[in-house]
Amino acid sequence: MKILVTGGAGFIGSALIRHIIDNTEHYVINVDKLTYAGNLESLSPVADSSRYLFEQADICDAEVLKDIFAQHAPNAVMHLAAESHVDRSIEGPGAFIQTNVIGTYTLLEVARHYWARLDPEKRSAFRFHHVSTDEVYGDLDNPEDLFTEDTPYAPSSPYSASKASSDHLVRAWSRTYGLPVILTNCSNNYGPYHFPEKLVPHMILNALAGKPLPVYGDGSQIRDWLYVEDHTRALLEVLTRGKPGETYNIGGHNEKRNLEVVETICDLLDQQAPSERDPAIASYRDLITFVKDRPGHDKRYAIDASKIQRELGWQPTETFESGISKTVQWYLTNRSWWQRVMSGDYRLTRLGENT
Ligand code: NAD
Cβ(171)–Cβ(181) under 8 Å? Predict the structure, then answer.
């Protein structure tokens, strides 16, 4: 297969491309605008593969997308390009509406016209896989409740509302035009190559720098954490074996309070990097500080991932304990990756420089 991946220079997209190139014979065309969140250095392990190609493009640009589809003739689209940071969506929702809603609409239209002209065999095999989030469901009050594929949408933030809109567009393009779509809604990911503004890397890097570890409110918000490589395995299973028109929830069965996540990171750093701790403190936990809560902050997310397990046999291989330990270790041994992000030098890596 030739798979057109959008947002392949981001956290999950780059993990997906590394997974596809390392474990399959498929070809990948990575279409990414390279916003601040796009980092070609996350693709260094696969950049020299003859089955990998990069196209710098904005998914809102229909003309450029048409050329890319015509030139590469993909058998499938895996759509991950998005603005993805909730705090940024609160400060400036415009970019989220533009990329997540208008961009998804533009990509759907270009994909639909391309798909309609394929020969019947290729047309029925074509897939448009939309990668979405559990945040579209809002939050859960009852501690027993889980998000299923039938949970009504109730997004809380501009980010989750824009992702919910994109999910609705994708389903409408399936129902109205027959485009063979598949959707996945996944819980919070963590792992290597995660952009430092997100909770897990932010805490690791602040702790190593001896800076405060800011926890929103009292840190009691619950998220279901999934190691990114478990997510990318699930995505490929869904693309190749999932039923068109269906939605699959993906989750890690790892519900943790935010404070617990931060404390676990501190404990791992106490074990793995004791010599870098400020001698004035006894534990990295001493850096934890509570800050004013995020407006509209969802209290609890938890995923029922039984459908993907039952129908496709997928389940996570990492527990939170094993995955977070690997992640802390990765940040300790791959300092040049995040140091280049922090300094802004990663933005200098562009097409043609063979990252
Ligand atoms: P990310 O922010 O790390 O990466 C997004 C990528 O999209 C970047 O490489 C960026 O350059 C690119 N991009 C942004 N706007 C673009 C545009 N207009 N045209 C082309 N490329 C553009 O995001 P991520 O964490 O890797 O998330 C990927 C997808 O998975 C998103 O759709 C997100 O909603 C979804 N998701 C993320 C999580 C999570 O925990 N991170 C969980 C569930 C679902």
Answer: yes
Catalytic residue selected from 52, 159, 190, 248: 159
Question: Probe ligand 1: pick from 35, 105, 226, max atoms within 8 Å of CB?
Answer: 35
Q: Write out the DSSP string of 30-90.
A: EEE---TT--GGGGTTTTT-TTEEEEE--TT-HHHHHHHHHHH--SEEEE------HHHHH
| Secondary structure class of 352 (helix, strand, coil) | coil
Which domains are delineated in the chain? 2-191+226-253+297-318+343-348 (3.40.50.720)
Q: What is the pLDDT along the chain (355 residues), one digit of tens a residue?
A: 999 999 999 999 999 999 999 999 999 999 999 999 999 999 999 999 999 999 999 999 999 999 999 999 999 999 999 999 999 999 999 999 999 999 999 999 999 999 999 999 999 999 999 999 999 999 888 888 999 999 999 999 999 999 999 999 999 999 999 999 999 999 999 999 999 989 999 999 999 999 999 999 999 999 999 999 999 999 999 999 999 999 999 998 899 999 999 999 999 999 999 999 999 999 999 999 999 998 888 889 999 999 999 999 999 999 999 999 999 999 999 999 999 999 999 988 764 443 3
Distance from the alpha carbon of residue 350 to the mean position of ligand 1, in angstroms: 18
Tell me if 82 CB under 6 Å of ligand 1.
yes
Concerning whether 159 is annotated as a catalytic residue, the answer is: yes
CA of 256 to the centre of ligand 1 (A): 23
